Amino acid sequence: MRYMFPLFFILMIAVLPSQAADLTARQIMELADDRDDGDNGVSDMVMTLIDKNGNKRARKIRSYTKDKGKDKQRIMFFIMPADVKDTGFLTYDYDEYSKDDDQWLYLPALGKSKRIATSDKSGAFMGSDFNYSDMTSKNLDAYDFRILDEKEVRGEKVWVIEAIPKTKDEIDETGYTKSVLFVRQDNYMVVRGVHWVNEGGRIKYMDSPTIEKIDGVWTATKRTMTTKKNKKTLHKTELNFYNVKFNQALEQEMFSLRRLEKGL
Amino acid sequence: MVIQLRQKIEVGFGRFAHLIYRNHWKVLFLILILVAALTSQLPKLTMDTSTEGFLHANDPALISYDHFRDQFGRDEVLAVAITAPDVFDLKFLTKLKQLHEELRNNVPYLDDITSLINARNTRGEDSTLIVEDLLEQWPESVNALEEIKKRALSNPLYRNLLLSEDGTTTVIVIKTDAYSSLGVETESAGDFDDAAFEADTETEAAKAERKFFTDEENNELVIAVHQIAERYNGSNFMVRIGGGPEVMFKLKQTMQTNMKRFIRLAFAIIAIALFVMFRRISGVILPLLVVLLSLLSTLSVMAMAGIAFKLPTQILPSFLMAVGIGASVHVLAIFFSHLQQGNTKEDSIVHAMSHSGLAIVMTSLTTAAGLASFAGAEVAPIADLGLLASSGVLLSLLFTILLLPALLSIIPLKAKISSSSEKRHARMDRVVVGIANFATRRYKLVLVLSGIVLVLGILGAVQVRFSHEPYKWMPESMSVRQAGDFLDQKMGGASVVEVVVDTGKENGLYEPRIIQGLEALKYEIEKIKGGPISIGKTLSVVDIIKETNRALNENQQAFYKIPDNRDLIAQEFLLFENSGSDDLEDFVDSQFSKARFTIKMPWTDSIYLEILSADLERRFHQQLGDDVVVTVTGMNALLGRTMAATIFSMTESYIIAAVVITLMMILLLGSVRIGLISMIPNLTPIILTVGVMGWLDLPMDLFTILIGSIAIGLAVDDTIHFMHNFRRYHLETGDVPDSVRRTLLTSGRAMLVTSIVLCIGFFIYMFSILTNLFNFGLLTGFAIAMALLADFFLAPALMMQFYKQGTTAVEE
Asked: How far is Cα B52 from Cα B214, in angstroms, rounded to an integer?
């Protein structure tokens, strides 16, 4: 009788049919990191900034992306509002974490392009609630991952994974002291995330309420990031993607300074 | 008729005293029930020491400040200044970084922290635009350190904000939360419902209910900063802490401890003085009991009415002490004197009550009516003070005429037959008679001298300087003053006034005219120096655009300006937003329709701030035109407006009170002429007190102006007691000098005892380190002494002048 219980327990684990239980948090994050997010993509993004009083401010941006090996290149042009039309950003996001991203911008009113040097990814992306680290992939080695729970988000099963940065540098880099990520079990997409900001007691809530399979690629066509403090909303950003297409014939020339200065 | 009525009332008081004597236990029981019922409400009493507490919730100045705080956060920042021989020394910077991080990680309610460690450093190098924190790349070599030093010293943004001009002092700026987080539970991992990912647009009603950052939270934050920063303090790392949150914390803390200490001390001194005067324990306990119960009951009434204890309400204990002691001493002095003459206790109680009862009721009603006239004041706590002080007076009256005789009935008391007490009694009588004789015989001289003194008083009174500078109440020996003075001198001050420019349209700030106008204002305002206010520095979106423009143009100083092109301004804003810095949200709203313009300056008199506010509004409209809305706000501007409003509202209230009191005097004394004459000894002490303030250049500030309520209480007391008794004796004999003598021998003794006791009680405040408490003690004591002298000398002389010898009364 005494040996029955542990034996039963061991048997239980062995026969548990779910493949999910076999994956460690780290493995799940690797799957999420490696999932196919498309190549040679074109999209129109409408970024809506919403302040706590509900005032809105919209920007429309056309963006093109291309993979170059493991690196990612992106060129973006503002379409709206009129004051900043044709302002462009060109970004080379390197897979190697020790290498800072390269970024150039072109201001039409100034008539010249500039390289922007910044090593900090904790800064806001285009003045939104997203920061640069939210827009690029993370260095998995810099984190301790742990499965907290399994839940459902909008009817889909997800793993709830806690990510804690191992080093102070990583905290400084991303601006987050801790994150909780909701990873869909069917397609490994991070559909929700909660990020604790290292200053001012703020918490940011990322959500991808609309996910579509476009040209075979699971794509979030709507993403929101809500910054809260003491459970009160400070600011919110909505990203809506339209005309998303992948596998377009994008020349390497598209991702050059010359093209940046030429405009759309 | 009047005589009959008065006699009837006096007989009535006698009967009433008999009744109490016979039912003393019942009366005591009833009073105890009343007190118990009232004090059960006491736990509901709330404190509100905030500046906002001065204004009614719908005051436009408060509403615009609340909008400001909601948009840009709290304006007052904490400044941790660190002085070293060389700020750009690697060891120093390492320590600074440690302190910066420890503060960031451990200080509660911290919203934002800025220092040289993370200061924005936007610059252009060749064709590269570099946006990073000043110390983002930690300097490893001497050359790198030199480079950073050069950058920091040449950055106009840091000067007088993060770095002193001589480069020996650097400041860590800590911005606190704007809203209170008391009672908000923190999000724990794992329980995120769908709602957490939604933005909740708050309704206006929900927003109105949110509490702004509280004093308690401010204190907690300041204490935490002190604890951390002081551990770093050392010879090559000298820490000084200043700024609004620190000053507010220290001032309130010092005020509270000093107020408490000196009220206790005053009670103790008054107890001793009462003992010296009466030589009886009962003579000490009873008046203090009346005061204590009046105070407790009044505070309970506050609690019941839901009125918070605010800064001006601090005067209540002192006020009730003055009034309560006065009333009970009048009963006790007559009682003990009658008892000493061999009368029974019951007789003595009846005698004291019939002699003084009516006068006490009259003084209480008059003082209460006078103070109740504050109730209409537009400054909320002044209105509260009026209501509370008048209910306090009435409660004190209740205890004096009910509890006091009941307790006298219960306590075993006998005449004390001792030669020393006889001698003392005789000595006081001699003094009082001497005064009465002098004042009546040489009444012309007294009138002339009083006239001269009064003229001098008026000459002083017109010079009184309205001012409010709580920062200067604290002595220079306090660390908060040393740090504050240091920051004022080295960093152009740590106090701010905020201006918000609302263009009324989205992207209104892209307009070159507006942003260039703001730039012109920056230069114009930073030139305001040397007068009562010297502006240290201004901060606005102008700095951001200028530095971006320069960085985009290879750091050429010629481009440190606002571009002429609207599109370029818009694009530079976009670039800055995209650079990752969130500094823009400190200066503009998300619609780019409003700009915040912060003006940094040393601590100054709130009265000047009121003038500055008007001046700023004019300058802004001049530069930007009339189609923008300009709002001068911030805690300092609010303080200026509040204090000015309070002081003027109080002055107005006093004038109304004087009119009400005059009417009461006319009504109670039953004669217009006598009522008006009685206002001379009533007003003289107040005029003389204001006169002394003028001559000694003591400021009429929020604190000193409250003394008036105590002065009114005492002056009215003394005058009514004098007039009431004088007229009683005069109606009996028709002899003015004799009536004066008899008045001073009876009520005069009580007035003398009260005044001596209270003068000592208030003069004790002069030992406080806070100048406002020193002034309070000096002036209140002086007012009390003047009230006594006015009724010992001036009132008798006036009686000599206006009553003809031999006639019984002028008014009949």
From this structure: 11
Q: Give the sign of the dihedral formed by CA B726, CA B730, CA B735, CA B736.
A: positive
Q: Given an 8 Å threshold on Cβ–Cβ distance, is B130 in contact with A203?
A: no
Query: Which residues are CB-neighbours of B57 under 8 A, at least 6 positions away?
Result: none
Which residue is listed with tokens 């004066």? B740
Closest CA to B710 of B770, B643, B777: B777
What is the per-residue DSSP string for B460-506?
A: HHTTPPB---HHHHS-TTSHHHHHHHHHHHHSS-SEEEEEEEE-SST
Query: What is the CB neighbour count within 10 angstroms for residue B584?
Result: 18
B 502-561: CB under 8 A from A? 506-507, 510, 552
* A250 near B CB under 8 A: no
Contacts of A110 in chain B (CB under 8 A): 552, 568, 571
- Whether A13 is in a domain gets the answer no
The one-letter code for the residue type at B509 is L
Separation between Cα atoms, residue A31 and residue A26, nearest integer Å: 9
CB-CB contact of B796 with B443 (8 Å): yes
Structural domain that includes position A224? 24-262
Alpha-carbon dihedral angle through residues A127, A130, A133, A135, given to the nearest 10 degrees: -100
The DSSP secondary-structure symbol of B700 reads B
* A15 inside domain: no
Query: Touching check for A89 and chain B: CB below 8 Å?
Result: yes
- Number of structural domains (chain A) is 1
Cα-based angle B748, B750, B751 (whole degrees, multiple of 5):
60
B112 — contact with chain A (CB < 8 Å)? yes
Q: What's the CA dihedral at A62, A66, A71, A73 to 10 degrees?
A: -30
Domains of chain B: 1-57+279-417 (1.20.1640.10), 421-462+670-812 (1.20.1640.10)
- Residue whose token pair is 């606190």: B176
Element at A238 (helix H, strand E): strand A232-245
Structural domain contains residue A80: yes
Which candidate, B545, B525, B677, places its Cα nearest to that of B612?
B525
Q: How many CA atoms lie within 13 A of B784 on its CB side?
A: 28
Contacts of A170 (CB under 8 A, 6+ apart): A139, A142, A143
Tell me the CA distances in angstroms from B331 to B89, B569, B694, one per residue in order.
Answer: 75, 80, 37
ipTM above threshold 0.90: no
The residues near B546 (Cβ < 8 Å, ≥ 6 apart) are B519, B560, B561, B562
The two three-digit tokens of residue B85, written as one number: 């021989």
The verdict on residue A111 lying in a domain is yes
Question: Are the C-beta atoms of B498 and B66 separated by less than 8 Å?
Answer: no
CATH code, domain with A245 = 2.50.20.10
Percent share of chain B, pLDDT over 90: 46
Contact call for residues B88 and B152 (beta carbons, < 8 A): yes
**Extended strands (E) in B693-800:** none
Query: What are the tens digits of pLDDT across the range B460-492?
Result: 999 998 888 888 999 999 999 999 999 999 998
Report pLDDT digits (tens) over B644-684: 787 778 888 888 888 988 998 898 888 898 899 999 999 99
| Digit-coded pLDDT (tens) for B212-236 | 888 889 999 999 999 999 999 998 9
Quick check: B360 contacting A, CB < 8 Å?
Answer: no
- Residue A64, beta-bridge partner list: A42, A75
Q: b/e map of B243-260 (b: 16 or more CB within 10 Å)?
A: bbbbbbbbbbebbeebbe
Interior CA angle at B176 toward B538 and B70, to 5°?
75
Min Cα separation A2/chain B (Å)? 36
Distance from CA of A142 to the nearest CA of B (A): 20
